[in-house]
Design brief:
The complex is a heterodimer of chains A (about 450) and B (about 425). With about 450 residues, chain A is mostly helical. Chain A is built from 14 helices and five strands. Chain A has a two-stranded antiparallel sheet with strand order 1-3. In chain A, helix 1 crosses helix 9, helix 2 crosses helix 5 and helix 3 crosses helix 4. About 15% of the residues of chain A have low confidence. Chain B is mainly α and about 425 residues long. In chain B, helix 1 packs antiparallel against helix 13, helix 3 crosses helix 6 and helix 13 packs antiparallel against helix 14. Chain B is extended and about 110 Å long. About 30% of the residues of chain B have low confidence. The chains are: A mainly alpha (about 450), B mainly alpha (about 425). Chains A and B meet through helix 4, helix 5, helix 6, strand 1 and strand 2 of A and strand 1, helix 1, helix 9, helix 10 and helix 11 of B. Strand 4 of chain A pairs parallel with strand 2 of chain B, so a sheet runs across the interface. Chain A: This is Tubulin epsilon and delta complex protein 1 isoform X1.
Amino acid sequence: MGRRRRRRRVDPADAARALPEAIAALSQTLPAGPSPETFRRAKFDRPEAAPAFWRLLFCVLSPQLPDGASASFSPEAQVRSVKLALRTQGYPRRALAQLPDDGSQGGRELLLALAWLLAREPLPERLLAQNRVQLGDEMHVCECEALASPGPPAPSVEADGCVDIRHLQWLMGKLRFRWRNLMASQQEQCALLGKIHSYTRGCHSDRSLGHLSVTETELLRDPEGGRQLLRRLQRENARLQAALEWRRRELVFWQWMMSVCPVTTLPSSWGGPDFSGALAFRKPGLCASLASRPTGDTVLDACPPEASQPTFLPRIPTPAAGALEPLVRELQALQGELREAVEARRAAWEAGVGGRGPEWSAARTALREAVGQDLAALRRACERGGSLAQPHGPRRLVRTEAGAPRGPGLRAPEVIEALRSREARLEVVLRRLQGQCRQELARLVGALPGLVWILPPGR
Amino acid sequence: MLLAGSSRRLVAELRDALDSCAERQRQLERSLRVSRRLLRAWEPAETLAPEPTPGPETNEEAPSAACAPSPQDLKELELLTQALEKAVRVRKGLSKAGEGDAPSLKSGSIATSPATRASAPPSTSRRAGSRASETEPPRGIRQTRVPAKDLPERRLLSVGDQACMGQRAGATKPESGLRNEQIVLSAASQAPEAFTLKDKGILLQLPEAFRKASSRNSRLWAQLSSTQTSDSVDAATTAKMQFLQKMQTTSGWPGSRLSATEVEAEVRHLQKACLLLRLRMGEELTADPKDWMQEYRCLLTLEELQAIVGQCLHRLRELCTAVVEQQLGPWPEGRFPRASLPCGGEADPTWSPQLLLYSSTQELQTLASLRLRVAMLHQQIHLEKVLMAELLPLVSKQEPLGPPWLALCRAVHSLLCEGGQRFLTILREDKPAD
């Protein structure tokens, strides 16, 4: 009895402390985090809270910048950058864009924006992982960064106008040369890594690793650098600890944020949003010509509410739809190729021998099922939000003896196998594309009389 | 030979490819510099500021297994100490005997020691790692004769003596992370003994503070990954969803809109899907069906692929519509910051890197070169598609069929069909004069 009374007496004090502690953990794990007092002021939209939050959002939304580089951006530039980044990510409230550029106002809106970012994804963890202190020698096993080239080309190209095709040939040659250099350098680096790993075997305190990495050996060679590394590591540990604290205590923060949110002012007919990002807004009979580049003043003025307000954002011509064109063409080309192949084979099949008789239908359903299962993984990977279960991300290289017992971790021979098969399939694709070009060119020039085309000797 | 308009895109794409290559090369060069420096002889540390590592006294208490002197090393040390003591005795005896012999012996020793010192780094390092041989004690004596008077003051037999290379006798011992018994020999010889990873790397040990920080780091990362899947997270998740919902209702827009980031993520996803489908199609088309069952199976597979491509195209058209309607843009920064989007589009379950085990340098080199090869093929395929799109219309459009056009055809053929590496030859048949 007395115990319960005691607990009830302690609870309010605990509850009062829980929120500031949660916020303190949050601001410790984020870069440039303001104090809990600043958070409280932001809720009431006090002007002194705004600059701290603009700075915080700037650091959070542009994590590629090294620590301290944010100081080189003027406050106005930071404000504009934050607005753009939030708009790009789909921040739902328009009030943010209406805040003044000098960064003097908007504490509450920025607090909401921060909470919105935190709610959508594990932001502290992601930021920590991006700027992680790398202690080992790492190699990526996936090729996600290999797809860096597709995408809208950078607009910062000199307006040359006309270019000689020989210039293109020269560029291609230069590219080949760079790749050869890259291969050679990579081989050398692997040889050196192998040596370093084998010379330092048995030196690591962690038995599963066994040997030192380049970073660790370097810190032994250069004590000053080692001290800096140690400091960075300790800072990261502090932030990791704070992130764990945050995870434990964040519930009370979310309860508080519900009180920060303004009361809804819109008609209730617009309630019930759908978070899967599905497109809820579709005009029937819309035939947006995909080949044309839409500018700001197309007939597709979408949102009525926006039209009633003066445009608060600079009307930038959006090349966005144009950027999707190449992919549309590619998929259409692929579809065309498949259609041709299917028609040809079906015609051959119909004209051919197989496929008649009573036992045929049973065999057909069995085959259909088998193919369905075969392609199930591929189908899943192509659907929205799907992906192939391939090893991802960077991996720390560890040298082991050939006959060592199987520990945790991916083994090089398996990765080599996977890469070899991937290489073979990519080569097939490349050959096919080149073959198509050959056919097309032959068609274009074939009609000309009086010329003999001698192809280069095959490989 | 001149190309108009579309050439800008071609040049831009090629420049992009060249830039990404150059960037990789720069990173590799940086790593190479560091690795090469590590494998050379290490320079002695300039700053001798005390580190937060434990002093020499505590080293002796807890040497790691790798640093514990092997019986072989102890034996060598024994032999050396005996030789040195004998040298001291002989020297005392000599000086007592008279001046005459001492200079000759001294000069003899001085004459030999530079010679041996000149070859000191390789020879001592070889000696350090090699078995005890008969030649060792005499060489040891000759080399240590010069600073022999300093020897009784030093603690030769202390394991883990912190004598660093390049130290003059009598100087203070700097603290470093190296525990190296063999360096006792080199300090005694007063030669600037170079530390090479090859010979003494196995004796290295990480400083205590670093080890603690590093193990705490991996522990914290592991904890962070595991809390993602605990139950107490569910209450927080519900609260977050409620908050997002409330944010949505107070927004200025009805329904939910796609953000530019989401569209971009889906487009990348569809690009990957397109490549996967194309790879699979390539497999099916090059496969050689042996019987009617395989033939039919191939047909069914192609039909299924066709259906999937149709769905992807449908989704892409929806995205285009969304982009146009919502006037999304500008496209963020032109080039998407790779770092901000996690691999594969979904969050990594483990935030810190896992291991990749290899067993020989050959294996590592094969792995790395295959990775580069795959990346190069990706790039080549992309460039091939871009070139096809821009160059083929060019060939068909140009009407004048004179020599410039032939030259263009030849160049286009080489770029598109041979990767720019080989050229075809065009011969013109001359009509015989009548």
